[in-house]
Amino acid sequence: MREESWSGSLPPPPTTPGEQALAAARLGGASERDAAVTPDSSSIRKEGAAPSSVSCSPLLETPVELPSAPAPTPRPKMSMEWATFESALRRDAATSDARLVLIGDSITEALRGTGMGRHREEYAAGPGVLANRLGTYDPLALAVSGDTTANLLFRIFNSGFPPTDRAPEYVTMMIGTNDLSGARIAAVHDAPGRDADATLDCDAMSARTLKSAAAALAGARKVIEAVRIRAPQAKIVVLGLTPRGDSRGRSMSSYPLRIDYMQPSSWSAAIAAFNDGLRRFVEGDRKRGTGGTIVFQPCEEPFLIGSGSKEGSLRWINATLMKDGLHPSGAAGLEALVGCVEAGIHAADVERDRETGAVSAAQRNI
Asked: Measuring CA to CA, which residue among 96, 47, 77, 82 is closest to residue 234?
C-alpha cells in the first residue's frame, strides 16, 4: 500500500493568528477564550472543510506496551513501478561510497526529491537540504515510497544496501508508518462511501491501527538486525515515526480529501506505542551490548505546535512543514526532517565515544 498523500488543490488555510486559533478551538472543543491564547501557527484544518466527526482522547498519546509478534516475511511489492525504482537503487547501492546511508519509505525518499523515483515538486528542496546539512557524509538515500518493513527487508537482503566492503559509517532508518496503515485497509473498504475515517470514531480507528503496531515493531527490529549483518561497524540511528493527521474522504473518490492536523489523531496511539517499543528495544540492546553503536532519535516534536503537557491543551501538526499531515515537504519541512537526522548522528557519535571510553577504562583495569 502506498502512503496516503495530498494531491490536487485545496482551499488556502486560515491566514491570521485569530482564524487559526479559532479553527483549533472549534476542532478541539475548546472555547473562544482558549483560542485567544493559542499561539500563532499554521492552519489546523483546510478552510471550508466540514466539522470533524472524530474526537480523540489525549490518552491516545500515552504509550501502551505492545505484545510480541512475529516479524513480517521479506517481500517485494507486486508493482512494475516499484521494481524499476528498486533496481535503480540497487545500482546506487552497489557503487556507493557514502559514509551515511538513509533507509526508509517515502518520508526518506523525499530527500532524493522524488516519490517512487519520479520528481515531486513538494520534495524538490530535499537533495539541496541534505547536501547543505550533511554533505560531508556523502549521504545516499535508499528509500522507496510506500515501503513497509517487509519491503525494506526484501531490499536489504537483495542487494538494496551497500555490500560489506562498501559499508557506510552511519545508517539511519525510519520505517513502519505504512505497516500501521495495514489494518485501515479493511476499514476503508467496509465503510459506506469508502470513507472510513469519516464514519468511524477515533477510538474505533485507533483500535484498528494499534493492531498493526506489534508486527510493525517486530519488522523494524528485524531491519536493525539486517543492517548489522550488512554493516557491522556502522553507527545506527533509529528514527522515531513522525506524527500523522487524519484525512476525510479520498482524493480518487467523490468525497473531497480534507486534512485534520489536530493531535492526538486516530494514528497517535499506534505511533506512540511503536516509538516507545522501538526506544526500549534500542536501550535494552545497548545495555546487553549485543551489537555496535545504536541510538534512538525521536522525530515528532519538530513537526508539532502547542503543548501536550496537560489534558485538553491544543496540539497540532504544523501544516507549513507537513502540508498533507504525513510527509515533511517544502524546504522548511525537509529542513526539520534532516535536523532530526543530524541530531541522531550527533547522538550516535556521543554514544560511540562513551562506548570507546568504557572499553578503554575496562582495559586499564585488567
From this structure: 96
Which string of b and e fits 313-344 if b means at least 16 CB within 10 Å?
ebbbbbbbbbbbbbbbbbeebbbbbbebbbbb
pLDDT class of 311 with cuts at 50, 70, 90:
low
Higher-confidence position of 58 and 268: 268
Cα separation, 300 vs 265, whole angstroms: 13
Segment 324-341 shows an average pLDDT of 97
Higher-pLDDT residue of 33 and 3 is: 3
Cis ω on the peptide bond leading into residue 139 (within 30° of 0)?
Answer: no
User: In angstroms, what CA-CA distances link 198 with 5, 205, 264, 316, 326?
Assistant: 17, 10, 16, 19, 18
Cα angle: 191, vertex 196, 200; to 5 degrees: 95
Model confidence pLDDT, tens digit, residues 85-104: 999 999 999 999 999 999 99
CA terminus-to-terminus distance, the chain: 55
**Domain extents in the chain:** 14-38, 74-364
pLDDT confidence of residue 363: 54
Task: Answer whether 181's CB lies under 8 Å from 187's CB.
Answer: no
8 A C-beta contact, residue 198 and residue 249: yes
Least confident of 192-196, 226-230, 278-282: 192-196
User: Quick check: 330 and 321 in contact, CB under 8 A?
Assistant: yes
Cβ atoms of 60 and 205 closer than 8 Å: no
Helix boundaries (H) for 231-318: 268-288
Q: Is the pLDDT of residue 38 over 90?
A: no
Domain 74-364, classified CATH 3.40.50.1110, yes or no:
yes
Percent of the chain surpassing pLDDT 70: 72
Contact 296, 283 (CB under 8 A): yes
Distance CA 83, CA 96 (A): 20
Residues 6+ apart with CB under 8 A from 255: 193, 194, 195, 198, 248, 249
Separation of alpha carbons 204 and 225, rounded Å: 34
Distance CA 295, CA 286 (A): 8
